[in-house]
């Protein structure tokens, strides 16, 4: 039985309220679990390009392997799913990636998937998980790392990019950055965009609830 969930955040922070934001979101759709959130050291801007991905990967593997004795399942709360495949090889507990969970949910709404992210190209996990679908990827103007999402300029660019994906024929928008869950981009887009928008953190929580009910 899965009773304790570890939530791995890839953005370094000493702010406990910030660190536990994603676990609180997942708890809304997956109640009845114990939760613990930990973050990577020395990743102040999270993962937003190949260099930060490469820097984070050994830290993710180290944290996962040393943490597994204290938890029943690990959620990597980054939509790029860094290290998820390797962690599944190394650990004796299940590992859920927010990116894969987001893609699973997006597929329920159609096969033309709009993707909003902060990396130069759509994360590889989205390419793999959405094989057979048409994907339309945009990185909003002025959004280059997770912190940009929280600025007024960043939010305006996210709205503009979502409307562009809608114009291009997307049937659903998948958020390829869990920082967009922190700032609640789903609610930001609701007054402006007619498409369903998939929050990767909530998707991970729903997948967790489906696979490991109380």
UniProtKB/TrEMBL annotation:
Lineage: superkingdom: Bacteria
Listed InterPro entries: Asp/Glu/hydantoin_racemase, Asp/Glu_race
The protein, known as: Aspartate/glutamate racemase family protein
Native source organism of the sequence: Vibrio olivae
Taxonomic lineage of the native organism: Bacteria, Pseudomonadati, Pseudomonadota, Gammaproteobacteria, Vibrionales
């Amino acid at each position: 039985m899965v009773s304790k969930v570890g939530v791995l955040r890839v953005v370094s922070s000493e702010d406990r309220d910030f660190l536990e934001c994603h676990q609180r979101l997942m708890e809304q759709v997956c109640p009845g679990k114990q939760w613990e959130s930990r973050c990577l050291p020395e990743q102040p801007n999270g993962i937003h390009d190949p260099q930060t991905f490469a820097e984070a990967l050994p830290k993710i593997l180290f944290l996962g392997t040393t943490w597994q004795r204290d938890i029943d399942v690990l959620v990597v709360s980054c939509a790029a799913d860094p290290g998820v495949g390797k962690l599944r090889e190394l650990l004796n507990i299940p590992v859920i990636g927010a990116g894969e969970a987001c893609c699973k949910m997006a597929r329920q709404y159609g096969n033309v998937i709009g993707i909003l992210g902060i990396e130069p190209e759509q994360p590889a996990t989205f390419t793999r998980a959405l094989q057979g679908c048409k994907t339309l990827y945009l990185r909003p103007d002025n959004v280059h790392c997770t912190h940009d999402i929280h600025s007024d300029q960043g939010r305006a660019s996210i709205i503009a990019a979502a409307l562009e994906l809608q114009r291009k024929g997307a049937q659903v928008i998948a958020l390829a950055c869990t920082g967009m869950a922190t700032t609640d981009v789903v609610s930001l887009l609701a007054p402006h965009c007619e498409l369903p928008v998939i929050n990767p953190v909530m998707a991970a929580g729903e997948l967790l609830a489906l696979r490991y009910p109380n």
